[in-house]
Structure formats: structure tokens, C-alpha cells
Amino acid sequence: MRADEGAAEGGSYERAHRPARPGDASPADRRSAILQAALQLFAAQGYRSTTMSDIGAAVGIRGPSLYKHVASKHELLVEIMIGTMEQLIADNMAAVAGVDDVHEQLRRSVEAHIRYHARHRLEAFVGNREIGSLEQPDQDRVLSRRSAYERRFRELIERGVAEGVFHVQSARIASYSILDMGIGVSSWFHEVGEFSVDQLAYQYGDIALRIVGVAAERSATRS
Q1: How crowded is the C-beta side of 100, counted as CA atoms within 13 Å?
Q2: C-beta separation of 186 from 121 below 8 A
Q3: Which residues, in sequence order, are CB contacts of 31 under 8 Å at separation 6+?
């Protein structure tokens, strides 16, 4: 199954075209509905193939009225992608807060990473596919946050190596490998599948620890 098929199935496109009643929502609610419709349409048919008319039709807002809430579809793409990265960083910071053990910090970081990608499949999919659609300086804004997020994992791995807990030749390659697992999850995971989000996170935590050279008997701390 291709990633674009996985991201678009499950009725996302149909939900994006389910009209709302504009008069029933506050401006903030309308903005949220527009953003969600844009996300679903970008995932289903691509950013470049989506028009402002498509987005307006999905939320029941026609013509110039849509521009009262959003300036352009590029603005929506930026908001989706910046929001994704900022949430990932915030989740990571919360996951390791109050924890000093580098082994446990990496496990919790990976679990937070996997949980986000399992629960926000469209955001992850659009964020990965549409980076080339961003105009400057917004593309650099997203890339800088991506780099900061990857660096949190890399520096954690480097500290584990320095403490003799982890054993890898390249902390950068190890961090890339771990982060790529989240992208994979966003392309295939379904809530009605064999594993719950938490079960998936725990298992990926074990896999990540093995990537950095932690023995299986130590990495399998949860079931």
C-alpha cells in the first residue's frame, strides 16, 4: 500500500466535503474547520491540486467569504506544518520532563513520537510530503524546527554513548532511523488494527533501544 493511499483512506476525503453550517460557528471554530478541511484535502489530493474553492466547499463557505477567515491556502499549509513540529517538540519535552536516566528518556521520547504519528496521521503525512510546496521563509521555519527536533534525539543518543549505555557508530544515523519509524507508522497504522496506540508505542520503544545497542532484556520493560 502506498503512503498516499494509507493517508487518504478511511473517509477523510468524504469528511472534508461534508458541508458545515457557517452561521452556527464562532470565528475561531470556523478557522478550525477550515484548517481541518484543508488538512484532509491536502492529504487526499495534494496541496497543489487543492483550490481555495475546494476548501470553501468543504466547510460550506463560498467565494470571498472564505478570505475573511484565511488569506491563502499557503497560510493554511504553513499553519499545519509549523503546528505539527511545535506539537512534536512540546510532546518530547513533556515526555522527558523530570526523568534523568538516559535509557528511560529515549524510551519516552520514542513513545511520544510514535503516539503523535499514530494519532495525527494526516498531519504527519502532509508534513512529510508537502515540504517542497512551502515558500520561503516559511520552508526554513519548518526545517529549523525539524532540525531542532532531530537534534533532541541525537544529543540524547550521544549522551547515552558517553555514559556507556548506548552503543552506536553514528548517533545521527541512529536518530534518523528512529524518527523514520514515526513516518512509517503514519502511513499504515489504523486504530481498529491489531495493536492499540499504547501497545504500538511500547513496542517501538523496544525497537529504538535495540537500535542504540541496548540488550533486549533491558529494553523490554513494558508489555
Answers
A1: 0
A2: yes
A3: 69, 70
Q: Which residue has the cell 503525512?
A: 125
- As a whole number of angstroms, the distance between CA 91 and CA 111 comes to 10
Instruction: State residue 170's pLDDT score.
Output: 97
Q: List the one residue out of 169, 173, 147, 166 whose CA is nearest residue 106.
A: 166
Q: State the angle between helix axes of 73-96 and 27-45 in degrees (0 to 180), rounded to the nearest 10.
A: 90
Q: Scan for cell 514515526, then name that residue.
A: 182
Say how far apart CA 55 and CA 78 lie, in whole Å.
15
* pLDDT at residue 28 in the model: 77
Count of all residues that appear for the chain in the document: 223
CA 112/CA 157 separation, integer angstroms: 16
In three-state secondary structure terms, 129 is helix
For the CA atoms of 189, 16, 13, 77, the dihedral, rounded to the nearest 10 degrees, stands at -70
Is 0.90 surpassed by the pTM of this model? Answer: no
Q: CA end-to-end span of the chain, whole Å?
A: 28
Which set of grid coordinates corresponds to residue 77?
Answer: 499549509
Taking the C-alpha atoms of residue 188 and residue 1, their distance in angstroms, rounded to an integer, is 8
Secondary structure E strands in the chain: none
What is the mean pLDDT of the segment spanning 168-181?
A: 96
